[in-house]
Design brief:
With about 325 residues, this protein is mainly alpha-helical. The protein folds into two domains: about 240 residues, no CATH class; about 70 residues, Herpes Virus-1, CATH 3.30.40.10. Helices cover about 50% and strands about 5% of the residues. The protein has a three-stranded antiparallel sheet. Strands 1-2 form a two-stranded antiparallel sheet. Helix 4 packs antiparallel against helix 6.
């Protein structure tokens, strides 16, 4: 883990779908990821968390060359984003707070490690593992990233990240940063192993032993959080939605899913529909997956697992937004005594 101000700039939020961003070549599914600063993340989320996206104009998209299924996918992904609003908003608050707390904690333990390392070097006593040498590499590595890394990227790699508009990173810069990250992560794992396997460092160099163990552990956790940010919270939430891992008070009443008709792959009822607009997978890629037709009467078809996960957070058809629950919302409830 490297303690730099650039860490927050790599926090990734997947792109949202809109009629303006859709193209004939590919219906965007929310998988595009951008590197944003905290301010840019907030502005990007302005239309995602608090505002409603403009309705999808089907006729306009079809005139631009998109197929009906691509337009359906755009509409479903937009509907999915709206459902995920509440989840993403809460998670972002928790994530930013945790990210900030971990950053402060790692920086504080780095200072503790540096002080303990300096005192241990001045003492003649040594322990059975090379914690001092391990600490030397960490101090040099962190000092380099705080002072020289940006200069090396600009002068050696020929990439200036301060240019406006910001140019994409060339492969040599990506490779260099990934190599640095892998080295730092592996070195922290090595620190945990060294401190854990030591037999006498806890008695001879107690402060250094504790600081190495704490710093390495926190750095590993911080790296995991950083990787989650690269994946994108919205992508994680969308995956959880499709696999039934989320639930809300707006979920469809019990039994709603069972009332959605089962359709076999190849059935004439499918017509020219070939893919699930929730997961965007073709029905033909795995014909053994159960397909359900919603009761909205508009011939909308989805994978059973995708639709079941959807109904745990909403009661409307993913496509046309008609209520799929029976009138009166009494399905699955105990009759009054």
């Amino acid at each position: 883990m490297t303690v730099t101000n650039n860490a927050v700039e790599n926090f990734a939020v997947p792109g949202t779908v809109s009629a303006q961003s859709a193209t004939p070549d590919r219906a965007r599914s929310g998988s595009d990821v951008s590197e944003l600063s905290l301010e840019r993340v907030a502005s990007r989320l302005g239309g995602f968390v608090g505002e409603q996206a403009e309705p999808v104009n089907r006729e306009e998209l079809i005139m631009r060359g998109m197929s009906n299924q691509q337009v359906d996918a755009v509409e479903v992904q937009r509907h999915q984003n709206e459902i995920l609003h509440a989840f993403i908003y809460r998670w972002l608050i928790c994530f930013f707070c945790s990210f900030l707390w971990l950053g402060i904690a790692v920086f504080s333990t780095l200072i503790w490690l540096a002080v303990s390392w300096s005192k241990a070097r001045s003492q003649p006593e040594r322990c059975d593992t090379d914690l001092i040498d391990w600490g030397t590499v960490v101090i040099v590595f962190q000092t380099y990233h705080m002072t020289l890394h940006s200069l090396v990227i600009r002068c050696v790699c020929g990439y200036n990240q301060n240019e406006e508009p910001r140019p994409p990173q060339p492969w040599r810069v990506v490779l260099f940063n990934v190599t640095n990250g892998i080295f730092g992560f592996g070195w922290n794992i090595g620190g945990v192993i060294l401190a854990s396997q030591s037999e006498d460092c806890r008695e001879k160099l107690p402060s250094l032993h504790k600081s190495v163990l704490v710093f390495s552990s926190l750095s590993i956790i911080y790296t995991v959080f950083f990787l989650l940010s690269l994946i994108g919270i919205q992508q994680i939430a969308a995956y959880m939605l499709r696999h039934g891992m989320l639930s809300s008070a707006q979920a469809a009443p019990t039994g709603t899913f069972d009332q959605q008709k089962v359709v076999k792959f190849g059935d004439e009822a499918l017509g020219d529909v070939t893919q699930c607009s929730i997961c965007l997978d073709d029905f033909g890629s795995d014909p053994s997956k159960e397909i359900r037709q919603t009761s909205c009467g508009n011939s909308h078809f989805f994978h059973a697992t995708c639709l079941q996960g959807w109904l745990k957070v909403g009661r409307t058809c993913p496509m046309c937004r008609q209520d799929l629950a029976p009138e009166g919302d009494t399905l699955g409830k105990e009759p009054p005594v």
